[in-house]
From TrEMBL:
Name of the featured protein: Uncharacterized protein
A GO BP annotation: glycoside biosynthetic process
Example GO molecular function: glycosyltransferase activity
The keyword Transferase is annotated on this UniProt entry: yes
KW Transferase (keyword) present: yes
Family: Belongs to the UDP-glycosyltransferase family.
Length: 459
């Protein structure tokens, strides 16, 4: 082969092997997107990540990627809001121009080695119009479960049928159109203008329908009926090859420092004795709820590792709202940190249960380590995930009455020491085994990832 032919072959090999990724700047979205970036990089794609200044990923952990910052126009006040839906709306309007300029520049700079497509978080709904104008295909990644996405997609129908706005008296009634959901599980998001929930989710659904492909951090054995329903309602090429973090160990995408004392403390505990408690990066609670959590933990008599994120209790710095006498009562039986190395914690032999807000990342992380869950969802997709954990997969128990110390204490004991907990653990171990199989050669996630790779190269 002469040098010109060699160059041509090299170019053909490279064609379509450059990808642009655009994560939503929230921890629960950045984590799966960077895991996806790692997976695609391992498949031979080169990765450019466009990101906002707000919550920008730690580039030093990813020397193999190229990073392109854009302005997000957020003031300090905007960035510290607890109204996630308002933040999403604002980001989607502030980023249009900077994103379009950045994309147009990147596309013009690398004309001889074109980008195959843009992979964006589904929540960046504005990006579809931009890529359409620049003639670039867009594939979206949904960082939620398929079951919760279908529930979001059904919001207009549920409203038409009179389920919304939710009435307290109807909370326990079944949603006939979406079994096994109850009215209280409908994924509404708290925000200052409730109408915005329909506007924002409506845009996400619409622009999902316009995408060239869908990516899910889920796996067929977990959500088979939901994936079948999705294929009917969204007839677009769809790829589910989760759990992403199990493909191979990758650098941490944590935006906060993880307190390693979590692990040294766990090393001193008996096997499966500890309940790990974390409500993730966004969920909040009031002082009354926080106090109920504290007394529920104290009264359960089980050792616990508790992540109290600064800001978990609105208006407080960190541990000031702990009730009087709590620390003296629990002594060395409890360990509290601001942020933990969660995946390592869940894999630790001392962990026997995970009390979670039921975000999709922690749910998958718990399944992968075979750890039974206690669920107390705060908003949105968490409501649906927790219903599935309790009723469909039966790998955890949902706190049906909210944060009440009596129910908390009782549920911790059901999971950690009673026979019921052992049965839950057995089912969890079965799911964990399914995870191991789906990632192996010939498994459902393995094949779906191969499918995505071929699909991108065909664009
Ligand atoms: C949220 C939604 O709930 C989720 O369903 C959606 O798809 C994305 O936004 P969530 O899954 O709740 O995200 O993520 P979160 O629990 O906030 O955490 C994200 C990551 O932070 C996890 O992968 C977890 O391992 C890590 N984490 C969490 C830590 O490293 N330390 C902690 O103490 C807590």
């Amino acid at each position: 082969m002469n040098s010109q032919e060699k160059m041509k072959t090299l170019m053909q090999q490279k064609k379509g092997r450059r990808l642009l990724l655009f994560p939503l700047p929230l921890q629960g979205h950045i984590t799966p997107m960077l895991q996806l970036a790692n997976i695609l990089h391992s498949k031979g794609f080169s990765i450019t990540i466009i990101h906002t200044h707000f919550n920008s990923p730690n580039q030093f952990n990813y020397p193999q990627f190229t990073f392109e910052p854009i302005s997000d126009g957020l003031s300090e006040n905007d960035a510290s809001t607890i109204d996630v839906l308002a933040l999403i709306s604002l980001l989607n309007s502030n980023c249009v121009e900077p994103f379009r300029d950045c994309l147009a520049r990147l596309l013009s700079e690398v004309a001889e080695e074109p980008f195959a497509c843009l992979i964006t978080d589904a929540v960046w709904y504005f990006t579809q119009a931009v890529v359409d104008s620049l003639k670039l295909p867009r594939i979206v990644i949904h960082t939620t479960s398929v079951c919760s996405f279908l529930a979001f997609a059904a919001l207009p129908l549920l409203r038409e049928k009179g389920y919304l706005p939710k009435q307290d008296s109807e909370f326990e009634a079944p949603v006939l159109e979406l079994p096994p959901l109850k009215v209280k599980d409908i994924p509404i998001i708290k925000t200052r203008n409730p109408e915005d929930v329909y506007k924002v989710t409506g845009r996400i659904i619409r622009e999902t329908k316009s995408a060239s492909g869908l990516i899910w951090n889920s796996f067929r054995e977990l959500e088979q009926p939901e994936l079948a329903k999705l294929a009917q309602e969204f007839p677009i090429p769809s790829f589910s090859f989760g759990p992403f973090h199990k493909h191979f160990p990758a650098s941490s995408s944590s935006l906060q420092e993880q307190d390693q004392s979590s692990i040294s403390w766990l090393n001193s505990q008996a096997p499966k004795a500890v309940i790990y408690v974390s409500f993730g990066s966004v969920a909040t609670m009031d002082e009354t709820g926080f106090s109920e959590v504290a007394w529920g933990l104290a009264n359960s008599m089980q050792p616990f590792l508790w992540v109290v994120r600064p800001g978990l209790v609105s208006g407080s710095e960190w541990l000031e709202p702990l009730p009087n006498g709590f620390l003296e009562t629990v002594g060395g039986r409890g360990h509290i940190v601001k942020w933990s190395p969660q995946q390592k914690v869940l894999a630790h032999p001392a962990i026997g249960g995970f009390w979670t807000h039921s975000g999709w990342n922690p749910t998958l992380e718990s399944i992968c380590e075979g750890v039974p869950m206690i669920c107390s969802p705060d908003f949105g997709d968490q409501m649906v995930n927790s219903r599935y954990v309790n009723d469909v997969w039966k790998v955890g128990l949902k706190l049906e009455k909210g944060l009440k110390r009596g129910e908390i204490e009782r549920t911790i004991r059901r999971v950690m020491v009673e026979k019921e907990g052992e049965e839950i653990r057995q089912r969890m171990m079965g799911l964990k085994e399914e995870v191991n199989l789906c990632l192996k050669k010939g498994g459902s996630s393995y094949q779906s990832l191969e499918g995505l790779t071929d699909y991108i190269l065909s664009l």
